[in-house]
Amino acid sequence: MIVKNYPYRDAYAARIAPFQLRVTRREPVKTERTDEGYIFDFGAETVGDFCFRAEGAGTARVRYGEYYEEIFSDPAVLAVEWFRTPSDKFAIDGAAECRSDGRRAFRYARVFGEGFKITDAWANEESYPFGPAATFRCSDERLNRVWEICERATQLCSQQYFEDGIKRDGLLWIGDARVQAQCVYALYGDTALARKSLYLFAASMRGDGRMPSNAILGGAHIHPEKINYMFDYVRKREVSGIPEFYSGCGEIYYLTYACDFISMLWEYYFYSGDLQTVKELFPVAAADMRYVCDTVGEKTDGLLLFPTARDLSAGGRIDTLGDNAAYFSCLARALGDYARLAAAVGDEGERDGAERRRGKFLALIRKKYLDPRGYLRAEDYRGGRIVSLSAQSLGHLCGILDEESARGAFQSAANDPDCAAPIDGMSRYHVYRGMFEAGLGETALDCIRDCWGYMSDKGATACWEKLDTRRPDLVEGDATISRCHGWSAGPAALFARYLLGARQTEPGGAVEAKPSLHGLDFVEGAIPTLRGELRVYADRRGARAVLQ
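The structure corresponding to this sequence follows.
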């Protein structure tokens, strides 16, 4: 019998206290007067309250859009079980100042009705109070635009914690947060938001060590107080005092996300040098690691057939849940990070045990999934063959494939007719990081141009949740797809690390810059670090870096 107690839920109250968010007034850059009312264009995605002053007598209705076409959508037509298009309705009688009924995420606001005129309109944008952002510029203007939309998405999705998306879902998910933290380290040099997010995950952990994939039970939710257009169908139904949506969503469990908590904690320590937080959270990491390994078990011989498994390569084969080569590579990487955490806190027994178990999983991967042609392939949960780009990347990052082997593996996998390519931003980040590490930076940049460049060409000012460039119609026009999703901002972290070459050499310690052009004519930028601002410039004649 599993007892669903949550031993850390109340233990970290002081660690997850609310931040004072920054509120910035944003004016529309363009106002269009129409026969039925007004269309306000704020020039870029924003999040917060939409406000306007009006005079007259009548009813004003508001539709919001992350993209232009969305403001003409019919909420009744687009409503699904868990989401409806946000809208507002105001009664105008004389002079009135109107504010949206809850937080809104939008670029465009369409106000329509009769009997009133609007005299002023603005947005009160909310975001975490970062300092100045890093800068980046290179010889490719398409990549410069990619940096800009990644920086904007990272800023907006940084609120009281790392929100996956500001329109939906407004939740803190482990896999999303790990990528978002990497972006924040590179863009702002901030570690406080990652620290709070880690404690929220810990506060959500069940007593048996099961780490939910999101932190809604630990307090990372804003429904329905701020996002009041989702999950209407459960809002009034409660279980043990907790809204049913919170309870059900809080039980979602992805094994890869449980591994990502371990790696995110190690990466936080590496960037912050904050050993005290690692010591406080190490028991949580230990319980998480035990639960993952006990759930999988070496006796499975590598087969994950239960439906709770999730790989990092959904993408082109979204019905495939069991790319075991990718999963076990992710687990092997987490065991390595856990061993490093154990060493940092001085627990030699846990370190040695993690290293032994990691060795077993590495041997298992090589035996079962390493194809004679040099790349990783697996069976899916239906028993069919599958090969994914994610498996090659994670296999390289966990030590299965050396740099030379990984280069060949990426090429072989791409030519395999069963290859699954990712379409979501998080999975793409892991794939392209593996490509850079394997010396395929130019290939990674081509992929980034293809995906994020497409978003930019379509007028995006932040990063879309996902995009299949082979079938963009599957995303475009779907109002349930997030157009500002934090897990898709990964190119910002990749550009800082692999183009500007800005890297930390030890936990909380010195930094270095080893810029690489990867086919570009020049790169330049300034990255905030714990030791100061690192300024980098490189072209075909040479490179220079200065820490100020």
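The radius of gyration is 24 Å.
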